[in-house]
Amino acid sequence: MKTGAKAILTRVNEGEPVITSIAHVSEVACILEGKIPLAESRRIISDIVNKRSVEVIDVSRNLYASSIHAVGAYDIGINDALAISIMKGRGVDEIYSFDKDLDNLPGIRRLHG
Fold it and tell me: Could you tell me which of 15, 18, 29, 52 has the fewest CB atoms within 10 Å of its CB?
């Protein structure tokens, strides 16, 4: 997983356009803060939110609530469902993820590094 994550970050750092949500950035921050020093975590999160090729979507209460339907429909977690809702709304069909639960979603192709 570490090798795959590095490969993804390399592509994004080279300018590959991606979208994410503030909820997913927060998820990454929580993971990083549990594994590396706060200063390093802060630098990484700052790089993500300030990179021109990364579009960070604000998440409204309504968007989050509308994602709850996908949780039951696809048997996935709420933040995965949020990602799928954002993707479908933007016409995106590829997702960077190490979560194998996303492999069986119709119209979605999981990329993992």
Answer: 52
